[in-house]
Amino acid sequence: MLKVSGIHVYYGAIHALKGISFAVEQGELVTLLGANGAGKTTTLKTLSGLLRPERGSVELEGNGLHKVDAHEIVHRGVAHVPEGRKVFPRFTVLENLKIGGYARDNSALAPELDFVFQLFPRLKERQKQYAGTLSGGEQQMLAIGRGLMAKPKLLLLDEPSMGLAPKFVEQILENIRAINKAGVTVLLVEQNAAMALAISHRGYVLETGQVILAGTASELAGNDLVRQAYLGG
Questions:
Q1: 167 vs 140, 141, 158, CA distance in Å?
Q2: Can you tell me whether residue 8 is helix, strand or coil?
Q3: Which alpha helices (H) appear in the chain, and where do they start and end?
Q4: CATH architecture of 27-37+77-230
């Protein structure tokens, strides 16, 4: 479904991604692991069109994305839920969700809205509440729900558990598993490596802008380097 081939991305003189390649198949939940600065967020921003690679290609279902504008990439079926949630604080929960479906006809949003409210009942209860008054966990639910309103083929999730209370972390990751089981392909960047691997099919490990390991979730969980660096030994 998604094929990333030898992409190089720069921030000025800084060579952030150094020819990384990986793939995500239809229906998979794949996680990207790596320390801060490894290139995980840069990778997601490149896939969603917020950054352009200097070299290399990104393909979704055989069609190139690496030269396509970000808003058009949404139309093609990619939704990006950024690190830090970035909800619109002065808009209500419902307004935030409808913004997520901006590329679609309002009359066609009902099934996605029902799915979001089924997945996150708390959002349904608070749909008239301003997003800025929600807790961090609730805002993360809203950010994910907003991404789902685009009816994506591929959902990019950047650190969805960051800064959340422990009770929300497990809940959010279970929600991500449910989203994937509902048929949405997911590429996940997550600081909680153990829980990310527990819900993923496969994973890749990035280090200084390069892929250094790849394998099934169980293979990576059993790898000595991964265990020492990300799973507490």
A1: 13, 13, 19
A2: strand
A3: 40-47, 70-75, 93-100, 110-119, 121-125, 136-148, 166-181, 193-199, 217-221, 224-230
A4: 3-Layer(aba) Sandwich (3.40)
Residue 66 to residue 57: CA distance in whole angstroms: 6
Dist CA 48 CA 78 (whole Å):
7
Burial of 184 (0-12, 13-18, 19+ CB in 10 A): buried
Q: Is 155 exposed, middle or buried (0-12, 13-18, 19+ CB in 10 A)?
A: buried
pTM of the model as a whole = 0.94
Per-residue pLDDT tens digits for 35-61 = 989 999 999 999 999 999 999 999 999
What residues of the chain score a pLDDT lower than 50?
Answer: none
Helices (H), ranges, 56-188: 70-75, 93-100, 110-119, 121-125, 136-148, 166-181
Note the pLDDT of residue 232.
Answer: 64
